[in-house]
Design goal:
Helices cover 55% and strands 9% of the residues. With 139 residues, it is mainly α. A three-stranded antiparallel beta sheet has the order 1-3-2. Helix 1 packs antiparallel against helix 5 and helix 2 crosses helix 5. The chain is elongated, with a radius of gyration of 21 Å. The N terminus and C terminus are likely disordered.
Length: 139
Amino acid sequence: MTDRTPPHITGRDESRTLRALGHLHGELRTRHGLSLLDYLTLGFLAEAAGGSAPVAELKAFLGESGDRISYLLRGMQRLGLVERSRCDRDRRTVRVTLTPAGRARFADVERTANSIVRAHLVAEPATARHVVSAPDDVG
């Protein structure tokens, strides 16, 4: 790195993001018994029309394998957060739907996630603040 290297290239922002995501994952586990993937799944479904989406769309959103998604959904289904069902029109298609308990749980988890993101990523650290000084009077 040279003195001319822009601050965004130094890795400081990336490590800050990494630490924030690690903290978020740990807090979600501790406070809510959910993983970061569980949170993303609940959020995806909460934003989907009717709280429901084909598993293939969820798989594409998360970028996970079908086996991993199936494992994830089984656990969430055991907790009563989601339901899975076959589509009437195409029995090969499986839809996942957020339950009322899942929607309520997501609201709690979302508050935790928002506070962590605000604390770790949105708030600018004191050392990164730029001080704007008035131009020198040139007379």
